[in-house]
Amino acid sequence: MEEKTTRPGPKRSLSAEQIVTTAMDLFDGETPSIRGVAARLGVRPNTLYTYLPDRAALERALVDRLLAEADPDLLLGRRSWRRRIEDYACSLRTVLLRRRGAAALFHSAPMDGPNAMLVGERLLALFTSAGLSPSDASRATYAVIVHVLGSATLTAADLDGHTEEEVVAARQAVQIDPELLPLTAAAWSTTATWNTETQFRWSLHALLDGCAAR
């Protein structure tokens, strides 16, 4: 009687997309190690290097995934150019605040992935459609991204595990000496709402007003 031989099953296939998804699931304020991602996937670390050669490449990929989660298609459609930019900017801010450390990731990894390029292209198209020169459209695009990242970074530090309402209430409870700081005391109710979405939208409107006036 012929002995049956057991053939090994097919090797588990991976993709860069699957690796990034796993890394995002493991992201807890810091980029997970290649070894940690490999362990979660049940493969050897060397397997991942075929797709992402080092930690820097993984960070780039995570940044690009966050830009995608904000939905670049918000920059399309029949809404006004200002509304489309505001929708994407607010969505990106929300995405960055959803995960601890996500905003800080943008300070250590460049925005040069396919989604970053797509977002940049669509922002440039919107600003040029608003009448800006290519040079000014490029500067305006950069200004919007910097505004989103700066706001998200400061807000994340301000919230630190608390809700927006809790932070505003705590700041409003601070007593300001009107004799020592008269202007600050008069404006404190507004100052207390810094780093809220309302403030973000106000600042973004002002930024877009300035861009449109060029």
The whole-number mean of residue pLDDT values reads 90
Helix and strand element order: HHHHHHHHHHH
CATH architecture of the largest domain: Orthogonal Bundle
- The total tally of domains equals 2
Oligomer: single chain
Q: Which percent range describes the beta-strand content? A: under 5%
Helix content: 55-70%
What form results from the Cα inertia axes?
A: flat
CATH topology tier name of the largest domain: Tetracycline Repressor, domain 2
Question: CATH homologous superfamily of the largest domain - what is it?
Answer: Tetracycline Repressor, domain 2
Radius of gyration, in angstroms, nearest whole number: 23 Å
Structure characterization notes:
The protein has helices at 16-26, 34-41, 45-48, 55-69, 81-98, 102-105, 114-129, 134-159, 164-172, 182-191, 197-212. 64% of the residues lie in helices and 0% in strands. By secondary structure, the chain is an all-alpha fold. It starts with 15 loop residues before the first helix and ends with a helix.
